[in-house]
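User: I'm curious what two different proteins look like when written out as structure tokens. Can you demonstrate?

Assistant: Sure. I'll show them one after the other, since each token string lines up with its own sequence. Here's the first protein:
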Amino acid sequence: MSDGEEEAVGEMSEGLQVELFHPDSDREPGDTNIQRFGFDIHPIVFPVALLLIAAFVVLTIGLGEDAASAYTWLFNFIGENFGWFYLLAVNVFIITLLFFAFSKYGNIKIGGVEAEKEFSDFAWMAMLFSAGMGIGLMFFSVSEPLYYLQTVPGFFGAEAGTGAAASAAMAQTFFHWGFHPWAIYGLVGLGLAFFSFNRGLPLTFRSIFWPLLGDRIYGWPGHVIDLVTVFATLFGLATSLGLGVAQINTGLSYVGGDMLGLFSIPTGTIPQIVLIAIITGIATLSVAAGLEGGVKRLSTINLYLMFALLGFLLIVGPTVYIFGAWVEGLGAYFGNILAISFFTGTLGQGGSTVTAWTVFYWGWWIAWSPFVGMFIARISRGRTVREFVLGVLFLPALFSTLWLSTFGGSALFNTLEGSGAAIATYNELGQTVAMFAMLQQFPLGAVTGILATLLVVTFFVTSSDSGSLVVDHLTSGGKHDVPRAQRIFWAVTEGLVAAILLWGGGLSALQTAAITTGLPFAFILCLMCYTVYLGLSNEYEILESEEFAETIEELTADEDVDVVTTGDQMVTDISAEDDEAVGGD
């Protein structure tokens, strides 16, 4: 085990967590790995995943011009036949997560009673938000409300182009970017963090199924679970990278040509592939720097850039209108959240929005969940279940609604009460230009356009970084620390897959890849709700057991320690006088 891995598993390595909570198994993360040529790989998951990814790429190239139509057909087929399942499953995830947070299990600490937080609250929030929503919010925050203003979601039944349609547009957008996606991420992150840090199992999806499979997680059942996870991660990430690079391409062209009149950059598939290559190179350098040196630093920069752009538009834009739209949008969202969460459009009310938008989003979030969930798990040791859930579920979701109200609300203001230039440009040039067309309507539009483009680039890099780290964990048998060469390899592979999908079938290929890989993974997540419950229940029983109470009594008698308990006397924290965790290094 490397020094980095020993540090990652933390001070619990010889403490109470190992003695009382870890399963009775002689297996260790990556204990069957092959270590050659600077790689440290799982002997089955790594080569099989690579082979299947290569086959998918060859198939896309082989289909040629038929790839786009094939991907479109598959996207529509899944949306029409499994859309109801996506909606039902994600609602179950929200209910499950809230139950964990507000039940007796909410006081259980991730990593055990000795664990301490690895990152500050601000750094934690910056990293999880950058990984979870960045590129998508930049891409859709203006274009989605403008789309709904003209094509009102069937659930609301308002007249297009009116104030009622604008209210419906904000509510529907909040729905897609609010609590539901973060519930998916939170459930996955909680399961991975608990079974890795509280049970000492590999940081891979197979570990979540320990209560059902036991040591068989190290056999073929576990291999299949991790392979599905690799696919969901890689293609969900490719979707985001493809959307991001399309917006970067448009942003550079629109700001440089239309807004500044300085230069004209061609737009299209070839320039976007070139941009993917350039930005993947930057991401590779960041990946090589690791979690602390690369991802954490860039995530913090992202957050500062987001606040700068958000604050500027709040000041120079229609401030009162933005906050009014935010409050009214929240009211429409909360007022309809239960009904809209289960709305499929089957009963003749118009389900085009559900198939084209909601099902795609839910499939995309589910495909992204291994990536975001594992990344959140990796940075969340030392937080209670309740703190974890409230932090992951509510704060990013509410911030997303403020961001959407600021950018989407400004675009709606320009459409309903201004010149209408933003929506005219959107209708003429498409989604990728919507953000820049809206910014052009306010002071220093070229400057904010450049800042927005830079922000998409940094989000691209952090997403690629985080995704590489996650795929590394999966293909190295769950090790917390993997060789630099392996991280670089997956960063390059992600960029390559995104480029080939973009070339082979455009946006439809990217969307289909996300929704298709998300479907089998949705079934895994449903089963995961039960296995996480079993794990937390077992943890609670041990914390309440006589054996644990006797151990705590012995500790307090032999050493000078502080023991923190809840109202029901369940121990939630143990620390020495110098605030070092008991049993630490």
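Here's a second, unrelated protein for contrast:
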Amino acid sequence: MPVSSAFRPLVLAPAELFTENLAAHTVQERHYATRHRAVAWVRVAAFGASIAAVWWLFSRGELPAVFAVAALAYVVFLLLVRWHSAVGYQREHYRLLAQLNQDELARLAGQLSGFDAGTRYLDPTHPYTADLDVFGPHSLYQLLNRATSRLGHDWLAGWLLSGAAPAVVRQRQQAVAELAPDVAWQQEWQARAKHYPKQDADPRQFTEWLRQPDFFRGKAWLKVLLLVLPPLAVASVGLWLVGYSARPVLVAVLVLGGLNGVFRQARAEYYRHSSSMRDALRAYWAQLAWFEARAWTAPRLQELHATLHAGSGQPASVLMGQLTRITGLFSIRESALVAVVANNILLWDLGCMWLLECWKARLGGQLDAMLEVGAELEALVSLAGFQAANPDYAVPALSDTPLEVTAEALGHPLIFTRQRIRNDFSSRGAGQTGIITGSNMSGKSTFLRTVGLNMVLAQAGAVVCARALRLAPAQVYTAMRTQDNLAESTSSFYAELKRLRLLLELTATGQPVFYLLDEILKGTNSRDRHRGAQALIRQLHQRPASGLVSTHDLELAAMAQELPGAVTNYSFNSTIEGDEIRFDYRLTPGACREFNASKLMQLMGIAVNE
């Protein structure tokens, strides 16, 4: 496998670095593509020359020379095949490295549609993911995810679904800080796995299957037959080829074929499980070898490195390589003719099953740990890639002040314009509510998502889109996109009430909660909406919760007088210049000064009296 370039700190701007890498790897890909074609022609020439030589010697009656040349040609051909395969690997590797840099450029440009959206992780009952675009089209998951395996995807998704404890967050931050500057190492890690694209199978099902009782348990007689029958069958075939009776061959085929038929179901089961995991195991083997080859200083990386050397004392990549080779032996079934010969002469499938169970008996208990380490590293590399691509993002500081969220120049990580507007914001302690009023399209909802997404990033261990962020651990909870559900005969208003009830239940547990509520109770009349919103804020004020509430209801801003020091007014404002409405998207202290709904309706052709 190719070795990545030496460590080089990230001194270029990310876009420049990725563009430079893309060009360099594309050149290397073309170089190896040329070599690959050349070696292919060498193979053709060698094959033609060997056929000609064998024919010439045979025509002269030089039978010993025929066998010698044929044997030599076979060895040379195998070496050429291996050389051709190695050059092909290099060509593909540089193509994958080029594609990785193309992907990074796409992420920087906000072109996320080509990446896995992680929609399988969407859950409408989750505290925040649906409202904050954590998963789905144009989502945080698409921006972060650089994993290739099913388990790696699940680990990263798990970090985004639930905030980690402060000690765990700090460990991840330290690990990511060590990984992030070495972009070449990260991309080599990713490219090694991308050679093996069929990684959709869940490895947890494979390891669970391995824990089932062994097929060979109580079948010592079958092990004896595996050792005795194939050599006898091969010997009978050899004797038949040199002129002896074919009867022993027929007997061997009937006996071995009968054994294969009796155990047909077990053979198929072992093949199914092994073939489904073959690419995933090969990918982990290649990645773990890359990780083991380096000394690490971050405590969590050292712990993961030590885990890979626990148990038998052999590196995990060696053990994984053994398992990869064993599962790869089952692939002979993909060629029907070869499989028939191998199974009816050598009992190939049964022999592979025995090898797999021998491996499991020695080391199978370590497989879960190896896979979990690989998956965690995939998640860490995803965070490191995100940090490397955004060197101006801040590493958040964890606060001991309950429910503190203090941000400088906080921006939305899924807004990719160069003119991204950033805002300062601060909230400390429980019982704090920021009421955000503002005109339509002025940025209220976007700001709520900005706060929420950066809190999710921070509690996953990632950098945040801010100059600085200090926050205390808290459960993020949102109520922003409630919709009616015809299947459940639920109106949007009732769906929102259910959502708010979950918030009240969550805050009643004593867990710190930071809530983000957008236009709450919008499905009812203004009087009920105002009364209900006031009641909710008063109730939340008594609990270990703080948050932000956006509203068009200016009357709600009066709560700052009812609960001074606990309710703070903010606003997003717009200005009307002729037929244009201008927005500055700046978070401003105090209630909104003016609204633009009437002007927007006029621009749409609705006659509204001034």
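A detail about the second structure: Residues 1-7, 484-490 have pLDDT under 50 and may be disordered.
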